[in-house]
Design a protein that fits this description.
The complex is a heterotrimer of chains A (212), B (346) and C (545). Chain A has 6 helices and no strands. Chain A is mostly helical and 212 residues long. Chain A has one domain: Cytochrome c oxidase, subunit III, four-helix bundle (Four Helix Bundle (Hemerythrin (Met), subunit A)), CATH 1.20.120. Chain A is elongated. By secondary structure, chain B is α+β, with helices and mostly antiparallel strands. Chain B has 3 domains: 80 residues, no CATH class; 118 residues, Immunoglobulin-like, CATH 2.60.40; 99 residues, Cytochrome Bc1 Complex, Chain D, domain 2 (Orthogonal Bundle), CATH 1.10.760. In chain B, strand 6 and strand 7 form a beta hairpin. In chain B, helix 2 packs antiparallel against helix 3 and helix 5 crosses helix 7. Chain C is mostly helical and 545 residues long. Chain C has one domain: Cytochrome c oxidase-like, subunit I domain (Cytochrome C Oxidase, Chain A, Up-down Bundle). In chain C, helix 5 runs antiparallel to helix 7, helix 8 packs antiparallel against helix 9 and helix 15 runs antiparallel to helix 16. Classes of the chains: A mainly alpha (212), B alpha+beta (346), C mainly alpha (545). The interface between B and C is large, with 82 and 93 residues.
């Protein structure tokens, strides 16, 4: 059973826990603002090129995007279960669930890169690289560029989140946590959930704007 | 009074109808600022003297400002600021809303010059002629980066943004020449991107427009006396190049710049943007001055303005003579090109 | 006479606890991190100042004086970048903020000491990128990187963007640390409305840092990606929108100016109380106006874009909100001035700085109000009027605040005092040098002299010469200040525990503090700067023989 480690500058364990939670929430807020700028850009350009955006959305692979959404939401479920299990002292179950979540994260990235590959085959690349038609409409190119920028930035965060879960899973498997002390599981889980939530906003804006 | 304050504050002359309105607001704000600053200064000084420390460690009364006084400290500045905003914003909307009968002028900014074009008339580089006492609407855009059309005497500026038109209008109060400066950093020659607004009495302005409309013909039929007798064409060409702004984009010493360098240009085979090649002879050089977009050299942007109607044929000839003299002295080993013989076919 | 030279036998303070180089570079002690940052920001202050002096020398004559146009364009860009990101944004929060926040809250350290150390080294990394950029020629885009120029210019833009991005991380992490510290580590007895005002201003600044800086990171990232990859977000030739860049950039950069001024306002709040032995005449108003600036400041960015082609509705909205944010500053100026009423005032170096601060903030703020009337901005935008306006605030207010804080807390941090006479004299010199430098620039702006001009029409010359003369005076003054402060580090008289007899919370522990800040937790029943009763716990100035 690990001892809860009270850092020397905190008065009580409770203060330490609250500090960790608040710190992670503040960090999540910074991530929201980071993506916020891109969402603002999306809004500005969609207002400027409403028809072009709908046309650009025809490039989207809705099946893959929807599959990825299911994958991510399921992975978040596993992270919740991981937190639940460590609260009941089940370290190895916790590590197991975290590994499952990581696996799904890799599945997400795999599907994403396959999707990028398909886009590249069609010539639907960002900016100057776009070569689907000889005379593309500027708004279509901007749509694709935003798609790559936003999903790309998201994929980078996904990679970071997988590594975070990896570190936490490793420590959980090494019995570093118990029902009293499992802050890294909760905080790492919060980061994962944020990455998931960002995807939940990206998905409809790119994949669901073309009526069937 | 207006003039005294204007000079005290180093403001330029009030060349437009907007200038006077804006200056009045300015005087009020500056006046009240100095007044309040003086009050704070004297109150502060009084406090520092009256309440100076007489004994180390002495105690002071715990003093909390009364809510009534707080309300004044908040309410009075807030009301004043909002009043100033209301006045200023009215003026702002006024200057952004051109009158129905405003004369349009298209302003195109490009590194590093200003081009003006009238919808049904002449065009000009770096000089904007307008009639006095009539509203003029400017439709401003840029060919490359963001610039800003700034006329201090009119107290106004508007950014020239590539990809869109912005508008502002003014009415010149009296005849004169007013400085135009570029007010948005745009690169190396930002501080030299200057122009002037020449306000003419309406009759003079009309005369100028008429002359411009005839101008093309005038220049085409210009007698050779456009050039001084016995003029050295090369020197004339060099002077024209400087005056007409050619040297802003073309170097004479081989330095790469906005346009192809003139060093060794004459006789050079240039590769074109659209593929193909052209030899830079008299015909091509003349065509480049009159219709620059026709054959653009690869590696350069199609940004050169046309000098059709702005250069007399004699001036064009002088420029070409000047360009011909820009040659590096060198002996080159060029590979000898023999004719290629294919096999004889029966 | 207070003893000077070698120290008396004193319990070991944070400076003497361990003295190896490694114990400094790998320290987790917030006080040492504050000192490390102090050395760094002072270095960059002088570097940015050197650029400024060179610019002013170039502007002595209408054409070329000492450098080419290309060099000039790079130099004003680097002056802005160095001063904004390597000096003004970090200055007070990472130095005095780091040093004093935990002490003022009765805590042993900040919430995340290792993150704090990481903040410092990330700052150094970002600064290293920027120094490398300077050596490879630097960018010539202006510190504002307006597109499309910044997308196409051949100068060394990428290392600059990376450097600022990295430094931005440092800023975010510091802000995060401070927010969590204020929320979770206050000693019992220190409620929200009993925190020292300096803590409130650091808290407000941290909120801005945390929320605004990510947008800066994003927009610079987009510029970098577009430069390298031709993506077409800001380039109109590819369907992009150059004005979108301005919106995203100013969404950060306007709140950023409050990052630069709020901490200085905190310093003034502390020193005005200490040197008039009075409580603030309205603690509540200062707190609310601080939060007001932090919040409303996020909604005023469009006032940088009145000529950029935004709609009149936008201009109106941003203008009104700008007036609102100005009120919060006006409230503070009245509060500080009325704090002097019935006080017990002594004029010291910090007092001269706070007086200068009050006036320059007043003029800087009022000229901001004038600019925000929209119509006047059509004349003044991108002229020297704006340059003067923001230098009045950044130099006249922020730097005066920094210097005032440096003098006020010098004994606390280093256990020595500095020569007061020279300090007062130099402070007065700085005030006059400042006026001589920047007042002519208001007039230049009125005349129509645009910003970032290498060549200028001749009729502007005499005011430029006056401004350069003032700048030399200012530079000279700054050199003197750091000269005598450096001297005092080693040869100044050893400080007593409370040389100012101040009742700020930070003076209720040893000077300099021990490694963990307190030997015993002080009594916080009274609010800070309560000079009304003898029983208020404080450590009095020791009477010297």
């Amino acid at each position: 059973m690990p001892e809860a480690r009270l850092a020397e500058h905190f008065a009580t364990m409770d203060a330490q826990r609250r500090a960790g939670q608040l710190g992670m929430w503040v960090f999540l807020a910074t991530e929201v603002l980071l993506f916020g700028g891109l969402f603002a850009g999306y809004a500005a350009f969609r207002f400027a090129y409403p028809a072009d955006f709908l046309e650009g959305a025809h490039h989207m692979k809705v099946m893959i995007g929807t599959a990825n959404t299911y994958v991510l939401i399921t992975s978040s479920l596993f992270v919740v279960l991981a937190t639940h299990s460590i609260k009941h002292d089940r370290s190895w179950t916790c590590a197991g669930f975290l590994l499952l979540a990581m696996l799904l994260g890799f599945v997400f990235l795999g599907l994403k890169f396959y999707e990028y590959y398909e886009h590249a085959q069609e010539g639907a690349l960002p900016g100057v690289w776009y070569h689907v038609e000889t005379v593309p409409r500027p708004g279509v190119i901007v749509f694709m560029t935003l798609y790559y920028l936003m999903t790309g930035l998201h994929a980078i965060h996904m990679t970071v989140a997988i590594s975070v879960l990896g570190v936490v899973a490793y420590r959980a498997a090494g019995n570093a946590f118990d029902r009293e002390y499992h802050a890294p599981v909760e905080l790492g889980g919060m980061y994962w959930h944020l990455v998931d939530v960002i995807w939940i906003f990206l998905y409809p804006l790119f994949y669901l704007i073309v009526p069937k | 009074m207006n003039d005294l304050l204007r000079r005290l504050l180093f403001l330029p002359e009030q060349g437009s109808t907007f200038a006077g309105r804006v200056d009045r607001l300015h005087y009020w704000i500056i006046g009240i600022t100095f007044l309040v600053a003086a009050i704070i200064f004297f109150v502060g000084l009084t406090f520092v003297i009256r309440y100076r420390r007489r004994k180390a460690g002495e105690h002071t009364r715990k003093f909390e400002v009364k809510p009534g006084l707080e309300a004044i400290f908040v309410g009075v500045p807030l009301a004043t600021f909002l009043l100033w905003f209301f006045i200023g914003f009215q003026d702002y909307v006024w200057v952004q809303t051109p009158p129905e009968d405003a004369m349009d002028v298209y302003v195109t900014a490009k590194q590093w010059m200003w081009k003006f074009a009238y919808p049904d008339g002449p065009s000009a580089v770096n000089t904007l002629r307008v009639p006095v006492g009539k509203p003029v609407r400017l439709l401003i855009t840029s060919r490359d980066v963001i610039h800003s059309f700034f006329v201090p005497a009119f107290r106004m500026k508007q950014d020239a943004v590539p990809g869109r038109y912005s508008q502002i209008w003014f009415q010149a109060e009296r005849a004169g020449t007013y400085e135009v400066l570029c007010a948005e950093y745009c690169g190396l020659q930002h501080s030299n991107m200057r122009a002037e607004v020449v306000a003419l009495e309406p009759a003079d302005f009309q005369a100028w427009v008429q002359e411009q409309r005839r101008g093309v013909a005038t220049l085409q039929d210009a007698p050779p006396s456009v050039l001084p007798a016995g003029a050295n064409l090369r020197e004339v060409g060099e002077r024209v190049a400087a005056e007409e702004g050619c040297l802003k984009c073309h170097s004479v010493d081989g330095t790469p710049h906005i346009g192809p360098t003139w060093l060794d240009l004459y006789g050079r085979t240039e590769k074109l943007l659209t593929g193909g090649t052209v030899v830079a002879d008299e015909a091509y050089l003349t065509e480049s001055m009159m219709d620059p977009q026709a054959k653009v050299v690869a590696g350069f942007n199609p940004v050169m303005p046309s000098y059709f109607g702005k250069l007399a044929p004699a001036q064009t000839a002088a420029l070409i003579e000047f360009i011909k003299t820009l040659r590096t002295e060198r002996l080159e080993k060029t590979p000898s090109q023999e004719p290629v013989y294919g096999p004889l076919r029966p | 006479m207070a003893p000077s030279g070698p120290e008396l036998a004193k319990p070991r303070d944070y400076l003497r606890e361990e003295t190896t180089l490694w114990s400094w570079l790998a320290t987790k002690d917030h006080k040492r991190i504050g000192v490390l940052f102090l050395a760094a920001v002072i270095f960059f202050f002088f570097l940015g100042g050197l650029f400024a002096l060179l610019l002013r020398v170039e502007l002595l004559t209408p054409q070329r004086t000492i450098m080419s146009a290309g060099m000039y364009n790079r130099m004003f860009t680097l002056h802005g970048i160095t001063m904004v990101w390597l000096f003004l944004i970090p200055a007070i929060p990472t130095t005095f903020g780091n040093f004093l926040l935990p002490i003022m809250l009765g805590a042993k350290d900040v919430a995340f000491p290792r993150l704090n150390l990481a903040s410092f080294w990330i700052f150094v990394l970002g600064a290293a990128f920027l120094l490398w950029a300077m050596f490879t020629g630097g960018a010539d885009t202006g510190w504002t990187f307006y597109t499309p120029y910044s997308l196409n210019t051949q100068s060394s833009v990428l290392p600059v963007l990376i450097g600022i991005f990295v430094v931005g991380f440092s800023s975010i992490l510091t802000g995060l640390n401070f927010i969590v510290t204020v929320h979770t580590m206050r000693a019992p007895g220190i409620t929200w409305m009993k925190m020292p005002i300096f803590v409130w201003t650091i808290y407000g600044t941290s909120i801005i840092q945390v929320l605004a800086t990510p947008v800066l990171g994003l927009v610079l990232l987009l510029v970098a990606v577009e430069r390298v990859g031709g993506l077409g977000i800001f380039d109109p030739a590819r369907g992009g929108d150059p004005v979108l860049f301005q919106h995203l950039f100013w969404f950060y950069s306007h709140p950023a100016v409050y990052i630069m001024v709020l901490p200085a306002m905190g310093v003034i709040s502390e020193t005005v109380c200490a040197f008039s032995r009075k409580n603030l005449s309205s603690y509540r108003m200062v707190v609310y106006s601080t939060l007001g600036i932090a919040f409303v400041g996020f909604f005023t960015w469009g006032h940088h874009m009145f000529t950029a082609g935004q709609s009149t509705f936008d201009a109106g909205a941003f203008g009104v909100l700008s007036m609102l944010v100005a009120i919060f500053t006006a409230i503070k100026i009245f509060t500080w001035t009325s704090t002097l009423y019935q006080g017990s005032i002594v004029v010291t170096g910090p007092f001269v700085y706070l007086s200068g601060f009050l006036f320059f903030l007043m003029f800087g703020g009022m000229t901001g109000v004038a600019l925000a009337t929209t119509a006047l901005d059509l004349h003044w935008h991108d002229t020297y009027f704006v340059v003067a306006h923001f230098h009045f605030i950044m130099v006249g207010a922020s730097i005066m605040g920094f210097l005032g804080g440096l003098h006020y807390w010098f004994p606390k941090m280093f256990g020595r005092t500095y020569p007061e006479g020279i300090a007062i004299g130099t402070a007065v010199l700085i005030v006059f040098g400042f006026i001589a430098t920047f007042l002519p620039q208001f007039l230049l702006g009125n005349m129509g002299m645009p910003r970032r001009y290498y060549d200028y029409p001749e009729h502007f010359q005499s005011l430029h010469v006056a401004s350069t003369a003032g700048a030399s005076l200012l530079g000279f003054g700054f050199l003197i200040i750091f000269g005598y402060l450096a001297w005092s580090l080693r040869y100044g008289p050893v400080a007593t525990q409370n040389p100012w007899d101040s009742r700020g919370y930070e003076w209720m522990t040893e000077t300099p503090p021990p490694k963990h800040n307190f030997h015993e937790v002080p009594d916080y029943t009274h609010p800070p700067h309560d000079y009304s009763a003898p029983d208020v716990p404080h450590i009095p100035e020791v009477e010297h023989a």
